[in-house]
From TrEMBL:
<dbReference type="InterPro" id="IPR052411">
    <property type="entry name" value="c-mor_Regulatory_Protein"/>
</dbReference>
<dbReference type="InterPro" id="IPR049739">
    <property type="entry name" value="YraL-like"/>
</dbReference>
<protein>
    <submittedName>
        <fullName>Mor transcription activator family</fullName>
    </submittedName>
</protein>
<dbReference type="InterPro" id="IPR009057">
    <property type="entry name" value="Homeodomain-like_sf"/>
</dbReference>
């Protein structure tokens, strides 16, 4: 989220009305209904984590021990196991949808 100067994007009349309620403070204006973005969508973090999780699962399938995955990805055993379980579920759903 970036900050914009009100005087650069709003009409002077609107700024005057807003100043009656909030004078010189920061205000967050939410997106319109239906226009919200999911976490990490804009920055690419969501896709980056999806790819990391796929890689973890692929390595696990190839026989890489969980302790090695913990060290390589700096995650807890619980996190690695959760990722493996989630990816395993996604793979089985993908296979069933093809049948």
């Amino acid at each position: 989220m970036k900050y914009l100067k009100a005087q650069n994007v709003l009409p002077k009349e609107v700024i005057t009305i807003i100043q009656e309620f909030i004078d010189g403070e920061f205000i967050y204006i939410p997106r319109k209904d239906g226009q919200q973005r999911a976490w990490g969508e804009k920055s690419g973090a969501r896709n980056s984590l999806k790819e990391r999780n796929r890689q973890i699962y692929a390595e696990y399938i190839k026989g890489v021990p969980i302790n090695s995955l913990i060290s390589k990805y700096y995650l807890s055993e619980q996190s690695i196991r959760r990722i493996i379980s989630m990816e395993k579920g996604l793979c089985s759903k993908s296979i069933h949808s093809r049948l």
